[in-house]
Amino acid sequence: MTTYIRGVTSWHIYGLLLRSDKKYVEAIKCYRNALKLDKDNLQILRDLSLLQIQMRDLEGYRQFFEITDDQFDFHAYCMRKTTLHAYVELLKLEDVPRRHSFYCAIEIYLQLHDNPLTSQSKEQEADSENLSAKELKKMLSKQRRAQKKAKLEEEHKRVEREQQQNQKKKRDEEEEASGPKEELTPERLERIQIWDTAGQERFRKSMVEHYYRNVHAIVFVYDITKLSTFESLPDWIEECARHSVSPSVPRIMVGNKCDLTDTCQISTSCAQRLADNYNLPLFETSAKDPSEKEHVDAIFMTLAYKLKNHKPLRLKQLPRESSMVHLSQEGPL
């Protein structure tokens, strides 16, 4: 008896070790050798079944549980042994009432309760008892055609409903994309005041606080024909950070004089790498080339769009004799 127990336990433990090493085929052989010594050992049977499921050995799974494939959601229940065992026990519990002698009668009564017979169906059933085989066949064929027609009509109605819903959804999306056509009145327009340092960077120590105070957006401009202006951009960006300019403040980078291609010293790819490094939109434009007018407009439209999304702008009323318009809650841009 002692040798018998040692043999079963040894094969079982050896199988567990092989399974932990992902040697599943050898582990299955060990489980089966253990079952030869004790075919009613539930623990070994469960371990073997779980391993077979994991390896998609569905044939062995069916032989053990004798349950059809569609009774399991394998992807949800086959990973944990305890959950699988509980689910199997639940299925076995469901089989208990099914084996009862009155289960068939109960199922019929439940179907009658869910689908009660109408007076028309009762009359048809009564008439069918008095019909010949040929007439009964004709009546059943007529019923099948009527059911098929009703099913087609229902499918047609469903398709029409889906088409109407899709059309309504498309119209709503188009209306939302287009938006209401508002009239551009002076009361609804907002002005953006652009301040240029205009060479004041020569006096950075004395003027720096002035043009960084309450700033709401920044445009970093460099000359594509002068490498020194491009190389100084990181210094300007770091200076913004030193003066507590929030990273959320909209910023863009602009390469000027792009019409001077013969004397260009900064390529677009090089500028784009720097812009991507600081997460800045990049524009290249020229104030002299008429074909670049759209790029100039795009710069200020992008700036206005970012400002509008950054925080709401409020138009401050100024004295009539003043020509300056300040945007935002605190001060000028």
UniProtKB/TrEMBL annotation:
Q: Where is the composition biased (Basic and acidic residues)?
A: 150-163, 178-189
Swiss-Prot/TrEMBL TPR repeat ranges: 8-41
Q: Which InterPro entries match?
A: NatA_aux_su, P-loop_NTPase, Small_GTP-bd, Small_GTPase, TPR-like_helical_dom_sf, TPR_rpt
| Pfam families per the UniProt record, alphabetical | NatA_aux_su (PF12569)
Q: Any idea which GO molecular function terms this record carries?
A: GTP binding; GTPase activity
Read off the Gene3D superfamilies from this record.
1.25.40.1040, P-loop containing nucleotide triphosphate hydrolases
- The reply to whether Nucleotide-binding figures as a keyword in the UniProt entry is yes
GO cellular component terms attached to this protein's record: NatA complex
Coiled coil start-end: none
> Which stretches does the entry tag as region Disordered?
145-189
Q: Answer yes or no on keyword Nucleotide-binding.
A: yes
> Which UniProt keyword terms apply here?
Nucleotide-binding, Repeat, TPR repeat
PANTHER family for this protein: N-ALPHA-ACETYLTRANSFERASE 16, NATA AUXILIARY SUBUNIT (PTHR22767:SF5), N-TERMINAL ACETYLTRANSFERASE-RELATED (PTHR22767)
The protein here is known as Ras-related protein Rab-33B
